[in-house]
Amino acid sequence: MSESLHLSGWRFRAVVLSVVGSALGYLGFSLWGGWHAVAQAVAEVGLIGIVIALLMSSINYGLRFLRWQAYLNVLGHPMPWRPSLNIYLAGFALTTTPGKAGEALRGVLLKRWGVPYPMSFAAFFSERLSDLFAVVLLTLFGLSLYPDALPMIVVGVGLVLVGLLVLSQRRLLERLTLMIPAEGGKVIGLLRHLMQVLVQAQRCHRLGLMLGLTLLSVIAWSAEALAFDWILHWMGADIPLTFAVFVYALAMLAGAVSFMPGGLGGAEAVMVGLLVWKGMSSADAIAATVLIRLATLWFAVAIGAVMLLKLKAQTPLRSQSVQSHPQALSSVLSRKQGQE
Predict the structure, then answer these.
(1) Which is nearest to 324 in space by CA: 86, 6, 12?
(2) Which long-range contacts (CB under 8 A, 24 or more apart) does 311-318 make?
(3) Nearest Cα residue to 87 out of 126, 125, 120
């Protein structure tokens, strides 16, 4: 891709195939559960309930966008909120890629605004870490339903805090990087690369900033977990809030670990399995899972696809992009001076 948005050829086909393939897989999952059960669940939740669920998802996206803006500011590349929001939402079009790695498309879209790839990747990587910490904390909150799980909760929260503390120490990260052998197999090479990324992204991991943004992430993901709890209650399921949060958070973790497109398969299996274990019929459990995933994952993909097509249709001239952003102007002038 060039500095103007150029999504064509095999890249565009890859986007389309990713979304279409995931959609077909989800269609098969819905058919397996039975359209009758899904239709009945929609009727029980109602139009107002669906709108509320979509609103909660929108709150999730909005809070995560604020976090994204904070990362770009810390990295020295503040962005005007409107184009930044368009780019951020466009990244959701590739949420159905394994591990949501396709969301790194934002880095390509940010390039014409003078944001170098290492900086956008540092922001993307920091996002994934923040999401991980938030979802782990929500999972531990769900375990509070069981007194026997208290030691696990204490240990889990402790590990999260230790992780936040370690990531905030640049010198410690640099020392750990030096301890990794210079030569080794693929695992050693991957570990070395990971540590180098952590060192580069350390500005996003200052302790005070990480604590604040982790709290923001917890609130963001809690919005979707709360929507899941409401859907279950609207369907008549007798399931406590803590268990609903636990199911949703654990499903997100399972989906991330599976590295399937958008967590498809892993997340759904966890949701359905735990809901059935809690007493829901398999048809109702599948219907509830389909509804919440449509209101979260597929709602995000739909928004992202619309924004990506909008950006592709605009394809602003590079001169217009330069005039609208000082950093882009500085970047272009620097390149011209280097050429002279």
Answers:
(1) 86
(2) 311/5, 311/86, 311/87, 311/90, 311/109, 312/5, 312/7, 314/5, 315/4, 315/5, 315/6, 316/4, 317/4, 318/3, 318/4, 318/112
(3) 120
Q: Are 290 and 29 in contact (CB under 8 A)?
A: yes
Predicted pLDDT of residue 214:
93
Residue 48 CA to residue 265 CA, distance in Å, equals 28
Per-residue pLDDT at 298:
86
Task: Find out whether 267 and 57 touch, Cβ atoms under 8 Å.
Answer: no
Q: Per residue in 21-49, pLDDT tens?
A: 666 665 665 555 567 777 888 899 999 99
Half-sphere exposure of 81 (CA within 13 A, CB side): 5
Contact 290/38 with Cβ under 8 angstroms? Answer: yes
Could you tell me the CA-to-CA distances from 24 to 2, 28, 31, 196 in Å, in that order? 31, 6, 10, 38
pLDDT on residue 14: 58
pLDDT of residue 82: 92
CA pair distance 47, 237, nearest whole angstrom: 19
Q: How far apart are CA 74 and CA 205, in angstroms?
A: 10
Which parts of the chain register pLDDT below 50? Answer: 1-6, 8-10, 316-340
What pLDDT does residue 328 have?
A: 45
> Structural domain boundaries of the chain?
9-168+206-328
Q: Is the pTM of this model over 0.85?
A: no
Question: What torsion, rounded to 10 degrees, do the Cα atoms 241, 243, 246, 247 define?
Answer: -110
* Structure-token pair, residue 97: 């890629």
